[in-house]
Specification:
alpha+beta, single chain, MaoC-like_dom, 282 residues
């Protein structure tokens, strides 16, 4: 697979237990307390985000005008959650770039390697639109991650409804380290074309994953082997957010959508669970 080489798209960091606890707690506000020390599967995106952000900044540094990033889709494959106290190496490749009328669409692959050997314990593919980018040369493949797993049969659908408050959004911003003003400042949000601040797209996904994990995996986030989705609209605070969960017959693949009264916010969502350990809760 062709990739674009950059000077140093690598970062090494140590993930602390308070960071893991704070992030999962922020994603689970309004839900029962999570298992101590067990990370959210979406924490992998938190670790990848800084390198991805730095890469986009480097790629667009020569652009004559401002460039804004719109997160289009996310794919995460994981063997296990990140561990408290673990040193993680984050490595990024640019898989492809395609010109579009509003800018350039880009696909980034991020691999997370931990303390148990050279093979990554998580791999993410991030799809984004760089609005205003005019100088990037097309190359490679922007198709995204591998196909979502096929569900086997159908189980009983379930629905959860939340209303994300501005305090919920602020707490998530600080726990994730994503302090983009559109999530925190109404003037900045309006300047970007929104009526008010908006929730982080990945916060909505993290909440959906937590709801599914509680309902279909006895709250054990270590059973998550992958997840993916496409983003279609922002989620403002104070309005109903409906999370629809459709498990397959064995609750190993759960499809999900997230919508507000204005329409779909997250679509084509899926979560894959490993089978429960023998003798463990189902």
């Amino acid at each position: 697979m062709t990739t674009l080489s950059l000077p140093s798209p690598v970062r090494t960091l140590t993930v602390t237990e308070p960071e893991i606890t704070d992030y999962r707690g922020a994603a689970r506000r309004g839900l029962p307390t999570a298992r101590p020390g067990q990370a959210s599967p979406v924490h992998t995106f938190v670790l990848a985000h800084t390198v991805a952000e730095q890469t986009v900044a480097a790629l667009t540094a020569a652009e004559p005008g401002p460039v804004s990033v719109v997160h289009l889709g996310q794919d995460i494959r994981t063997l296990r959650p990140v561990r408290p106290g673990e040193q993680v190496t984050v490595t990024l490749d640019v898989l492809g770039i395609r010109r579009e009328p509003r800018g350039a669409r880009i696909a980034l692959r991020v691999r997370l390697t931990g303390e148990d050997g050279p093979e990554p314990f998580a791999e993410l593919v991030i799809s984004a639109l760089l609005v205003g980018a005019t100088l990037l040369e097309p190359f490679g493949d922007i198709a995204g991650g591998a196909a979502a797993p096929a569900p086997l049969g159908a189980g009983e659908p379930q629905t959860a409804v939340h209303a994300l408050t501005t305090d919920w959004i602020t707490t998530y911003a600080h726990a994730s380290g994503d302090l983009n003003p559109i999530h925190l400042d109404e003037d900045a949000a309006r300047a970007a074309g929104f009526d008010t601040v908006i929730a982080h797209g990945m916060s909505v996904v993290a909440l959906a994953v937590e709801e599914a994990t509680d309902r279909f995996a006895a709250g054990d986030s270590a059973r998550v082997r992958g997840l993916g989705c496409r983003f279609s609209a922002p989620v403002p605070p104070g309005i109903p957010l409906e999370i629809a969960l459709q498990p397959d017959a064995e609750a190993r693949v759960v499809r999900f959508t997230c919508k507000t009264p204005k329409g779909a916010a997250v679509k084509s969502g899926w979560i894959e669970f490993a089978a429960p350990a023998p003798g463990g809760p189902r």
